[in-house]
Amino acid sequence: MSILMDHTTRVVVQGITGREGQFHTRTMLAAGTKIVAGVTPGKGGQTCANVPVFESVALAKAVTDANASCIFVPPAGAADAIMEAASAGISLIVCITEGIPVIDMTRALLVVREHHARLIGPNCPGLCTPGYGKIGIIPYHIFMPGPVGFISRSGTLTYELIALLTQAGIGQSTCIGIGGDPIIGSTFIDYLQLFEADADTKAVVMCGEIGGSDEEDAAEYIKTMHKPVVAFISGRTAPAGKRMGHAGAIISGKTGTAQGKVAALQAARVPIAETIFDIPTLLKEVL
User: Fold this and answer.
1) Which of 111, 126, 142 is CA-nearest to residue 35?
2) pLDDT at residue 233, rounded to an integer
3) What CATH code is carried by the domain that includes residue 114?
4) Same domain, yes or no: 116 and 219
5) Strand pairing class (203-209; 172-177)
6) Interior CA angle at 133 toward 129 and 139, to 5°?
7) In the listed set 66, 89, 120, which residue is the last one of a domain according to the structure?
8) Which of 45, 123, 205, 278 has CA atoms 20 to 30 A from the CA of 186?
């Protein structure tokens, strides 16, 4: 059992003929991901990395029965790409693109919800399920199958922490980078609910950062969970009002501080790592 991705996942890559699309299509194929189609308007009928290219997602889905999408479309067109995938009946949409205008994402999210699709991102590294492959840009070779679910707002911290877990002999069930923009498709709670219901996941690592209230909201849900959660919050030394990396990683007034997030998680009895190097030790204590 796995969440979001398994042997039935069939991926269409939107923007497959661009530099990033081509490169990461090859790394996804090398990881074992079933990529059945690509989409680039004006280049239908071509092939890229031995994958057929179509004019639209609707046509790609009709021909290949794709049910997931990975988007490598520049910011100006990425929201339209999200809406195209949702409207075509794609159930899982992973948007890697960073810098999509907030007003565009507001419209796109309404379409995603209208069609009951799940959106990961934007501004995310995607997801990986060891043994099935990956959708996105996460390096696959750092993973090993195991019982720990992983959710993070930070892409680079995802890579560092997964590598630490693997080095410590702690395998992963599924890893998700949820995205660092102010408006994203799914929250920590959405994924925690999936991990709580997944028989193969025995514990969860949640890597948060300053900005927004997603971690505080997640802390309230964690109080109802039966599975243990271990957390790390980055950006503890960030000054108020200064954006740190992600567009969503900014402290506004009294909300979004690392201290507030840590306090909320501690109230939910979640072990908090002082540094990422403490995560494997904390996990071994709860597993």
Assistant:
1) 126
2) 93
3) 3.40.50.720
4) no
5) unpaired
6) 90
7) 120
8) 278
pLDDT of residue 67: 98
| Structural domains counted in the chain | 2
Q: What is the pLDDT of residue 127?
A: 97
pTM (2 d.p.): 0.93
The closest alpha carbon to 238, from 250, 246, 247, 248, belongs to 250
Helix H or strand E encompassing 59: helix 57-64
Whether 1 is in a domain gets the answer no
Please say if 226 is a catalytic residue: no
Name the stretches of the chain with pLDDT < 50.
none
* pLDDT for the residue 22: 98
What is the domain extent for residue 20? Answer: 11-120
Q: pLDDT value at position 212?
A: 79
User: Which residues sit opposite 93 in a β-bridge?
Assistant: 69, 119
Catalytic residue among 7, 141, 226, 246: 246
What is the CATH classification number for the domain harbouring 152?
Answer: 3.40.50.261
Cα(first)–Cα(last) distance of the chain, in Å? 19
What lies within 8 Å, CB to CB, of 151 at 6+ separation is: 175, 176, 178, 188, 191, 192, 195, 204, 205, 206, 207
Within-domain flag for 134: no
Task: Give the C-alpha distances (Å, rounded to integers) separating 215 from 75, 98, 116, 146.
Answer: 26, 21, 24, 25
- Contact predicate 180/187, CB 8 Å: no
pLDDT for residue 155: 85
Token pair listed for 152: 């993070």
Per-residue confidence (pLDDT) for residue 250, from 0 to 100: 56
Asked if 83 and 68 touch (Cβ cutoff 8 Å), the reply is: no
For residue 20 the two structure tokens come to: 């990033």
Q: What is the pLDDT of residue 239?
A: 63
Which residues are CB-neighbours of 2 under 8 A, at least 6 positions away?
129, 131, 132, 173, 174, 198, 200
3-state secondary structure of 243: coil
Residue 203 pLDDT: 98
